[in-house]
Specification:
The chain is an alpha+beta fold and 211 residues long. The protein contains seven helices and ten strands. The strands form three sheets. It has a five-stranded mixed beta sheet. A three-stranded antiparallel beta sheet has the order 8-10-9, with no helix packed on it. Strand 6 and strand 7 (133-139) form a beta hairpin. Helix 2 crosses helix 4.
């Protein structure tokens, strides 16, 4: 069955370019991003892994660990990493799983038969510290991922996990957020002391609570 938002993120043990890991243990109390690549030495993925390395501090500031998976072996990964570092002007030092038996790809439903019976689609799983799947984005092999959006989703997930708010369209850190419909109007002033504005009874905004 397909993984859905709210499901437990399956645990696994795997060989990676940074050593053997137990996924849940490796994640610890951090947020995590697990994302897949159809194969090594693919051009779009080369740019994506490079961008991930370049954004190391951005992920660290969000207490978010990143883990990539490809169905090729470790030796192939190491060769590919050299190319990525050279062409993308970066230093890839996060784990890339050698998923030769497709164990992780199968656990995370990364092989879609309508797209390919052997290669993974380019899925991104956002996983919370309690090891739950909180968001999923899936791309075809031809479309590079938008890492500004990936960081934005992390920011939204972390904010809405800690505060009873939702984030509106195109929201970015520092902008107003939405008060959920389930919050009664008579409770708004107490729960949202920074103030609020009402556009419609069901559409209420408040300043981001942690800014």
């Amino acid at each position: 069955m397909s993984l859905r938002i709210g499901d437990d993120a399956p645990n696994f043990k795997a060989q990676t370019t940074e050593g053997d890991i137990d996924f849940h243990q490796w994640l610890g109390n951090s947020w995590g991003i697990l994302y897949s690549h159809p194969a090594d030495y693919t051009p779009v993925c080369t740019t994506e892994l490079g961008r991930t390395a370049q954004l190391k501090e951005d992920f660290a500031n969000r207490k978010t660990k990143v883990l990539a998976v490809s169905v090729d072996d470790l030796d192939t990964h190491f060769g590919w990493v050299k190319d990525i570092n050279e062409t993308q002007n970066c230093n890839v030092d996060f784990p890339i799983i050698a998923d030769t038996d497709k164990n992780v790809a199968t656990l995370y439903n990364m092989i879609h038969p309508n797209a390919s019976t052997s290669a993974t689609v380019r899925s991104v799983y956002f996983i919370s510290p309690d090891k739950k799947v909180q968001a999923i984005i899936t791309y075809p092999a031809s479309t590079g991922r938008n890492f500004a959006e990936i960081l934005r989703v992390v920011d939204s997930l972390k904010l809405t996990a800690e505060h009873n708010v939702a984030t509106p369209v195109d929201w970015e850190v520092g902008q107003d957020v939405i008060i959920p419909p389930g919050v009664k109007q008579e409770d708004v002033e107490t729960k949202y002391p920074k103030g609020h504005r009402i556009v419609k009874p069901y559409l209420r905004y408040t300043p981001q609570p942690n800014k």
